[in-house]
Amino acid sequence: MIGMGAMIGAGIFVLTGLAAEIAGPAAIVVFALNGAVTAFTGLSYAELAASIPKSGGGYAFVREIFDDFASFIMGWMLWFAYMIAGALYALGFAPNFLELLHVYGLVAPPGEVGAIAIPLLDLSVPLAFLLAFVAVLALVALNAVSTAASGSAETIFTIIKVSILVVFILFGLSSPMFSGAEFQPLFPSDAGAAAILPAMGLTFIAFEGYDLITTVTEEVKNPRENIPKAIFLSLIATVIVYLAVVTVAVGTLGADGLADAGEAGIAAAATSFMPTGLPIIQNGGALIVFGAVFSTLTALNAVVIASSRVAFSMGREGQLLPSFGRLHHRYGTPFVAILASAVVMLGSVALPTQSAGNMSSLFFLLSFVIVNVAVIRLRRERPAMNRPYKMPFYPAPPLIGIALNLLLTVVLVEYLFRTDPLAIVLSVSWIALGGVAYLGLKRVGTESEPETATDSTMSSDDEVEI
């Protein structure tokens, strides 16, 4: 549920129309190829998680294999990428929630909603920003006091949004519009098959999320077996849902119609073929908005979990302040790590949305390259290590994963230099700040002996292996 909750976020709702604008009906191919690219790195995550059952995701793997500075920069990038993603999900939640209220006549359209005055602070805050802050604070509070409650919320919200997409798919496949669908010409006439690559770079972020599963390894029963299973199940289910949704959208509204609708493409498709006067949900567009609200909430909750576990792992390893790596004496949660992540996440809301999203995509692509390198290095340096799961056809999957992720990284960087140089500047600045923080922490002597894991679900054999 953490993996699917993160992957099936707002991306499928807002990126389908944009992918159709670039690649035409081949948007279906774009999502399929991104799923394949993601699967190669997913194999590496599965093997590493089974071999190194530590919380912290990619950071924990790199920390086990690389030197201090390399592992610190990996954790620093991942931590920030998750927190930026959280800010974007919160900002995505606000307009969708306002649109949902507008559907029922409770507020004006989102574009017409004004600011809210806060007399005590003598401030006037846009309602969308206020809602984003409230969403972050609510989920942070839930995660801070109870891991079980945050996990239950993730499960419920994910089931609701997947159910909504299944309803969309079933109505679409049975509609007369889909029976006469035309998927030709597959590629746009001006760009041809060359349109696939930039569209993949744009939509790749929609497949980021399965890696969040490995950030909670020590909170899962039998992690050596269950973490790889969860990675594969979430990837397979997400790819199936994505392909079905995009196929229905292109088959009913058409690539041109989706492109014209842009970020509202899925909602426009639902409105075109779903009946009106549905119980509670008035029409197809309202149903999709309802799904988008739950999608942004599940994705936000997932990255609150993930970012705090990366910070917790770094604190436990002595690469952040020691307080980050301690569990709360009463709640049993990484309380300080959660609060610190929340502060940066709330601050990231002020970043330009497009630049923040591009930074997040860049950091995730770089981290996937490093994880694929890590699995190769671990095989070479520790060939006799206990590996409950070993990927098939090694070393082909990690090598292919490295090549494909590097290709998408180069495409993205070239695109950013042309269209969003601020994202490049911010990315370099964050890494440079990480270098300064690393040297500062070393100087004040905070790099101490790692604390012993306190999670009671880890077996003694796992502790010896670690």
TrEMBL record:
Subcellular locations according to the entry: Cell membrane
Annotated source species: Halonotius pteroides
Listed GO CC annotations: membrane
Protein name: Amino acid transporter
Primary location group: membrane
Keyword Oxidoreductase applies: no
PANTHER family in the record: AMINO ACID TRANSPORTER-RELATED (PTHR42770), INNER MEMBRANE TRANSPORT PROTEIN YBAT (PTHR42770:SF11)
Keyword annotations of the record: Cell membrane, Membrane, Transmembrane, Transmembrane helix
Lipid bilayer topology: Multi-pass membrane protein
Lineage: Archaea, Methanobacteriati, Methanobacteriota, Stenosarchaea group, Halobacteria
Segments traversing the membrane: 29-48, 69-91, 127-145, 157-179, 191-210, 230-250, 287-312, 333-353, 359-378, 399-417, 423-441
One protein family per Pfam: AA_permease_2
Highest rank taxon of the organism: Archaea
Example GO biological process: transmembrane transport
